[in-house]
Amino acid sequence: MPPPDVADLRVADLLTFLSVVRSSSLTAAARERRVTPSQVSKAITRLENHFGRKLVERGSRGVLLSEAGRVLAPSLEAVVSQLEAARTAHADTTEIMLGAPSYLQAALIPVIASAAPNLRVRSFGLPSLLLRAQAREEGFTVLILPGGDEHMPPTWLTEPVGEVRKGLFASPALARKLGYDGNPLDPQQLLDTPFVCPVFRQKGQGIPLEDDCPLPRRRRLVGHEVQTIFVALEIAVQTDQLTFGPLVSAERHLRSGALVELAVQGWDVREKLSIACDIDQIPARLRTSLVRALRDALSPSA
Q1: What confidence tens digit (pLDDT) does each residue in 201-234 have?
Q2: Cβ atoms within 10 A of the Cβ of 145, count?
Q3: d(Cα 139, Cα 131) in Å, to the nearest integer?
Q4: Alpha-carbon distance 99 to 140, whole Å?
Q5: How would you classify the pairing of strands 194-202 and 221-226?
Q6: Distances in whole angstroms, Cα of residue 115 to Cα of each of 120, 137, 223, 286, 293
């Protein structure tokens, strides 16, 4: 019998096998590749027939690579990487259309921009709910989102990258008025102090937004309403108003002493973040680089 012809190899089968390598699960690989587990099994079988050896073994803890599979995986990874590099070899840059809530952009877009030397980022800020709803219509290819993969189009792959802690911020003068001495405040002490609250303008109307503050908006004294956390923080610096938001947005003000973070009894708000990529537009290698860079930036030790 003549040896198998390399022309019989399917690139899709290579990608499927590498998905199994990363996830150690046929189901997870099927979800990543947007196919059925049966199609994943058939792709693995075709590769095993082509190379004439068993590549994966099913065990109690999922799918494990055989010795032959472990030896072959790096070579197939290199083949896929070379194919992706060839596809973009004549392009000066890789461009992504990125959507993210405004409070994440200043902290995380530089991380994304540095993840790939030739990456060009076009970034637009929208609340997370609108980003999910408008991902396809607005032409986005990458989203940074609070939460997981709910309500995303079928061609999008979502992966967790970390979390952001949120806190309550005030000017030093307001902190003194509230009697803050470093010990957690009782939430009842905040009821008579106005908050700078988020609002979004859509179709000519101002739409109040929730900011995850443990003190619900309906119980707060609402002061100024603005669209971005950066404006809210500047208002908090200059006025006797509180603002609640992500620590990553307030770090510059905290370092300079223009704002202080107020500890409040029972408040510990952490928001999980994910990156979502349109797998029809973003190569796997670039997606992996973005995920790794964001996880490094958001790790507790960073």
Answers
A1: 777 788 888 888 999 999 999 999 998 888 999 9
A2: 25
A3: 11
A4: 6
A5: parallel
A6: 11, 26, 40, 8, 6
Query: Which residues lie closer than 8 Å to 253 by C-beta, 6 or more apart?
Result: 169, 233, 237, 259
Structure tokens at 71: 């030896």
In angstroms, the CA 267 to CA 242 distance is: 15
CA dist list (Å): 285 to 1, 34, 73, 159: 37, 18, 15, 14
Q: Which residues are bridge partners to 260 per DSSP?
A: 170
State pTM to two decimals: 0.63
Report the pLDDT value the prediction gives residue 90, as an integer from 0 to 100: 46
Contacts of 102 (CB under 8 A, 6+ apart): 125, 227, 228, 229, 230
> Residue for token digits 């995380």?
108
Which residues of the chain are under the pLDDT cut of 70? 1-7, 60-61, 84-93, 129, 135-137, 148-150, 301-302
Q: With contact defined as beta carbons under 8 Å apart, do 178 and 189 qualify?
A: yes
Sign of torsion over alpha carbons 206, 207, 213, 219: positive
Q: How far is CA 69 from the centre of its chain?
A: 31
| Measured distance CA(155)–CA(134) in Å, rounded | 14
User: Could you report the per-residue pLDDT of 71-101, keeping only the tens digit for each?
Assistant: 888 888 888 777 766 665 544 447 888 988 8
